[in-house]
């Protein structure tokens, strides 16, 4: 089995629609894919409707968190998307994205970049606006050569000249909320130092003690030595280890299935989840519901 547990669609900052994403995943020979858009589950229904036979969808989201001033992301899998407390927190994070984007645009304009809200909104479309959309605007304007080049201290990286903080969930609260919604939590790319400061291993130990299920080890932003170190830490702390592409379509250079998750780990994730079932593809059957219990 080929299992990719971290992907994004146009519901947040990817460039493939949810339907295009699942069809592409099937064409790439994947057996399981997780749709984990930032702080939203809006793409799930479209992905389920288009899900081809032979591909299983894991519903999820990537939650924006902050620990001691350091931004971090928490992958949440197979939770009840209508659980009210987790839903309210996701909406709070998502609603703060628009004023934050306006503030970052203002900073960029002060730096001499002729970026506009209209340009960013066009790029974001129906997705939850975020830094990758601003980065794409900088590419369009010829300010940087690639989206990755925009995530530097000169521009949009954490603490960068045009960076503005947004509301982000305390990771311990995120774990509690996801667990209460029947979900499973995995710390996304915990050692991706190219993105900015990372949390120390002591904090990962504290998160594990609070109920964190796993850490994403095999990821494009982790070199071999980092992956080996994280694998050892996970074994020491009793955490699951996952691998994923963090696919964003054409916005990033990674490809679907570039890194994958061991089938035994995937099986353990599904065993621990009580909020939703993985959804098997039926060739695009309409009306499939991901929740375990009636809504």
Series of H and E elements: EHEHEEHHHHHHEHEHEHE
- What is the radius of gyration computed over CA atoms, rounded to a whole number of angstroms? 18 Å
Shape verdict: globular
Cα(first) to Cα(last) distance is: 31 Å
Please state the oligomeric state of the protein chains shown: single chain
Uncertain segments of ≥5 residues (pLDDT<50)? Answer: 285-295
State the total count of DSSP E strands.
8
Judged by helices, strands and strand pairing, the structural class is alpha/beta
Percent helix range: 25-40%
Query: Biggest sheet, in brief?
Result: 8 strands, mixed
Number of helical segments with 4 or more residues: 11
What share of residues are in beta strands?
A: 5-15%
Q: How much is the average pLDDT?
A: 93
Task: Summarize it.
With 295 residues, the protein is α/β, with parallel strands linked by helices. The protein has 11 helices and 8 strands.
What can you see in these coordinates?
With 295 residues, the protein is an alpha/beta fold. Helices cover 37% and strands 15% of the residues. The chain has helices at residues 18-27, 44-50, 84-95, 97-110, 117-124, 131-140, 147-150, 171-180, 201-209, 224-237, 263-272, and strands at residues 3-7, 32-35, 56-67, 70-77, 184-187, 214-218, 240-243, 279-280. Strands 1, 2, 3, 4, 5, 6, 7 and 8 form an eight-stranded mixed beta sheet that branches. Helix 1 (18-27) links the parallel strand 1 and strand 2 (32-35). The longest helix is centred in the middle third of the chain and has 14 residues, at 97-110.
